[in-house]
Fold DUF177 domain-containing protein.
Amino acid sequence: MRVNVSDIVKTEGAGLDVDFLGDLPELREYDTSVEFKPSFKFAGRIVNLGGLLKLSGDLHFEFNANCLRCLKQVDTVSDIQVEENFVEVSKSDDVDAYTFEGNVVDIDKPLIDNIILALPMKTICSDDCKGLCRVCGTDLNLKNCNCDEREIVDPRMEILKDYFK
Ligand SMILES: [Zn+2]
Ligand SMILES: [Zn+2]
């Protein structure tokens, strides 16, 4: 979403509300293991503080990810706080901030960066998910199977077996 900041860019302390509801298609260029729903919601403000434009607000997004243990799809809802700064591109040399040119601030990039950082390292459908049988693939949350998982030989154990011969 591109926000016209011409009303606040020259006035210290001035601010404007930013409300966004929609998709962030560029997010799909990132290699994440999750599938985002195209219903991102951001409600916040951009305030001119000492020449920096400070973006802050609440970002809501939803995605599906597969349980690491049983591969079931898990719907996840996430609410995060976003706080980022923008600086006019000609003044960006020694400031760590997103840049903007003219009177337009594009908030997509900081929103996307914050989403990527907030994604869980791994998704598990529930703490006591039993996962899939490693022999026959049965979902052990649904039913038991009669496989003997000890049949799967850990390669490290294999080495030890030879050692003790
Ligand atoms: Zn699971
Ligand atoms: Zn099995």
